[in-house]
Each structure stands twice: as C-alpha cells, then as structure tokens.
Design goal:
The chain has 416 residues and is of the alpha/beta class. It folds into three domains: 138 residues, FAD/NAD(P)-binding domain; 117 residues, Protoporphyrinogen oxidase, mitochondrial, domain 2 (Polyamine Oxidase, Chain A, domain 2), CATH 3.90.660.20; 98 residues. The chain is 33% helix and 24% strand. The protein is built from 14 helices and 20 strands. The strands form five sheets. Strands 8-7-16-17-18-15-19 form a seven-stranded mixed β-sheet. Strand 1, helix 1 and strand 2 form a beta-alpha-beta unit. The two termini are 24 Å apart.
Length: 416
C-alpha cells in the first residue's frame, strides 16, 4: 500500500480491530507485523495434524465486542461443558454451573468442594458480577480478587481448591492479586455465555477480521525499529509515512517505541501439548488443580471439545503452568507428566510431547489500581495513538474495544 492514511504497528486483535473500523469509514490503513503471521498471541500452529494454539486459550462468546465484530457461525465454534473437574483429595470432583445445567443443581449442593454456604455465596457473586452495565462495573471501588472473595465470605477451602486454580489459569496469577473489576468482568463473561474453541484454532479470530481488509493492507516480517513524525522506520531501513500512527503491539514493545524508561510488568505462562492414543477424559471439561501442589494449574483435552484439533485416532492434551520455570525443557516435561500420571494413571507414560510454549509476556500485570478501559486516553499526540493492553486491560473484548476507540480518535484527528 502506497501512502496509507494510517500506519498501525502490530497485527494482533487490537490492531486488526482498529484497521477494520478505519476501513469501514473509508480510511486506508497499513498494518505492519514484525513476525511471519498475524494474530499476535492468537496464533495457531499445525504439527502432525494437530492444531496447537500458542498457549491454551478460549473464546468467551458473551464478550459484547466479539459478538459485534466476529461471525460466530463462520468460526464453527465447539463448546466446553459448563463446569469443571476439580482435583483434590486424590480424586476428581465435578462442579457444574447450576444456572445452565439446572437438572444437576442438586449435585452441586452435595459436592465436597466448599461448604453449603460457599455454594450460596457463588450465587451472590454471580448476581454481583452480572448486575448493572459493564461501564458501571468498571466504576466500582477496586480491590483484588482475593479481597473480594474474602469479603463475600468464601472459605479458604473454596478459595484454594476452586478460585485459585480457576482464576490462576485465566489471569496467570496464583496469588489472586488481579483487579476485582477484571475478576468480576471475567466471571460475568463465563456466566453469561459459552466457552468455545473455533474449529480451525484461535487464529481463526484474527484471520476473520483480516479477511475484511484490502489484501495489500497487511505486511508481515516488517519490524518497526523507530517512530518518526507521522511515520515509522523499519528494520530494513525503509521509512513509511502517513497521517497518523497507531501502536497496537504488546505493552513492553509500545514502551520501547515510545522510549519510556518504565517497562510494563507481565504475567508469563507455559503450555505443554501432548499426543495420546486415548483421551484421559470422556467429557469436554476443564480440569483444575485444587491440590495446591505440582506445576500444572489446569489441563484439558481440546480435541474432545473440537475434534479438528487432532488427527483421527489421536487426542490432544493441553497442560498449563503459571510462569516460565527456570529449568530445562526435559525437567518441565518430567514434572508435568509425573503430575498427570497421578491424575490419570500409567497411560500418561505413553503420551508424546508435541510442543512446549514458553510465553514470557502472556498478559500484562492487572493489579489495582488499573485504568478504566472505557475512558482511558488512547491518544499520545496529534498524530500518535495506541491501543491494546498498553495502559488498558487484557482480554479479547478489551483488545477489540481499544482498537475501535483508537480508530474513533484517529477519525476525529483526520477530520479536524
């Protein structure tokens, strides 16, 4: 694309969202991506017939902005069952969502996971998280998720066995220090919609948005090394200029390009994928580690949820670890398989490692005080804007929202 109106640095969900809304308003945008493919952290690799998302991820279908931008039917979504298997006392204990599976509500009351009072407090938490608008939710007094749970009266048993592994796997934060607003927003989304995998992998989401843009509007292997007045300088030495620039890459990279001294802190995670001849589960459920020991926070069988994730006759298992262990890959695999063997038996010894993803910047730190993603400024100067997690919050929804908000500010600037 020659002489674009807007240059967007980064082809993650926020950058593509920005380009999509600019294109709808007749503004040309050139998206520059430093890697060999679009999607940012929403990438999917193919290996021996398996689909490997770069870190276990899901689509929460209740995200309002996702419903507005994405075509769910075209994504061919496959859904997790509404509930989880929680491992503690050397057994698996089923926890179902009684609002979506009312016929199994009685089993929740008699589950050893938490007390009867804890079960009633979940109803109170659900009411609190789903009441009012999302805008009102992000104006509430802010604390941490742990303080919110304790304030609601949840027992240590319930917090440690369920909320710590559940939220730990969502926010990669085992201490539950994530913002109470993000916790309640996430709980709201899990409560109001499905948890799904697209048939062709999570990369389907950015690919669908990119398919609505002109073919020449995205360039891969185009790393931006420096900002210039209304333009950028690429590692190749090429300079590209427009009328505005939008930074839509990870927080640490935005800080580098802005030459800021303080680099935003990150949460890291490790994901191990295994191939098995037989699945260790018979249902599309997430398994939570409620024992508080071992490296794994959760695991699942994506190919039970979406059969396209594995070739015929094989199963794909995903195990998630909070953080990136400072040990060898072999040590990680040994520790993970030892824990899975305790859970599923000696058949785990036959599982074959497909790939390990060590993601040092999986999410930004989202501890209080956090910015309001609906009101925080996305404008740096008359020609420079940013979107995504930088000075905002993470999740697919907020990435899409931030891209739209940046496009609106760019349109205002160009019109003026």
């Amino acid at each position: 694309m020659v002489n674009p109106d807007v240059i967007i640095v980064g082809s993650g969900i926020s950058g593509l969202s920005c380009a999509f809304h600019l294109h709808r308003n007749g503004i040309s945008a050139l998206v520059l991506e430093s890697s060999d493919g679009i999607g940012g952290r929403l990438r999917t690799d193919s290996k021996d017939g398996f689909l490997l998302d770069r870190g276990f991820q899901v689509l929460l279908t209740a995200y309002p902005e996702a419903k507005a931008v994405l075509n769910y039917e075209a994504l061919n979504l496959h859904y997790f069952a509404p509930g989880a298997l929680v491992r503690f006392d050397e057994r698996f204990h089923r926890l179902v969502d009684p609002w979506r599976l009312p016929l199994k509500a009685l089993s929740v009351l008699f589950s050893p996971l938490g007390s009867l009072s804890d079960k009633l407090r979940i109803a109170r938490l659900r009411h609190q998280a789903t009441s009012g608008s999302i805008a009102e939710l992000f104006q509430r007094p802010e604390s941490t998720a742990l303080e919110t749970l304790k304030g609601l009266g949840f027992s240590e048993n319930m917090i440690n066995r369920f909320f710590r592994p559940f939220l730990g796997g969502v926010f990669f934060d085992s201490e539950l220090s994530v913002s109470s607003r993000m916790f309640e927003f996430g709980f709201r989304m899990f409560s109001q919609g499905g948890t799904a995998l697209p048939a062709a992998g999570m990369v389907s989401l950015p690919q669908q948005i990119a398919s609505r843009l002109p073919e020449e509007s995205i360039r891969t292997n185009a790393k931006v090394t420096k900002l210039q007045e209304k333009g950028v300088l690429l590692a190749s030495g090429e300079a590209i200029f427009g009328k505005a620039v939008v930074l839509a890459t990870e927080g640490p990279e935005v800080a580098r390009l802005l030459e800021e001294k303080t680099i935003p802190a990150s949460r890291s995670m490790t994901c191990c994928y295994f191939s098995a001849l037989e699945p260790p589960l018979s249902e599309p459920l997430l398994v939570l580690n409620g024992e508080g020991k071992g490296p794994i926070v959760n695991c699942c069988v994506p190919s039970i949820v979406a059969p396209s994730y594995a070739p015929a006759g094989k199963s794909l298992i995903a195990a998630t670890i909070i953080g990136v262990p400072m040990t060898s890959e072999q040590a990680i695999v040994t520790a993970v398989k030892n824990q899975l063997s305790d859970w599923f038996g000696p058949s785990v010894d036959t599982w074959e490692l497909l790939r390990i993803y060590k993601i040092h910047h999986a999410l930004p730190l989202q501890t209080p005080p956090t910015p309001n993603p609906l009101t925080t400024s996305v404008k740096k100067s008359s020609w420079l804007f940013y979107c995504g997690e930088y000075r905002s919050l993470a999740s697919l929804h907020w990435a899409l929202v931030s891209g739209r908000r940046a496009s609106e500010r760019v349109l205002e600037a160009l019109n003026r």
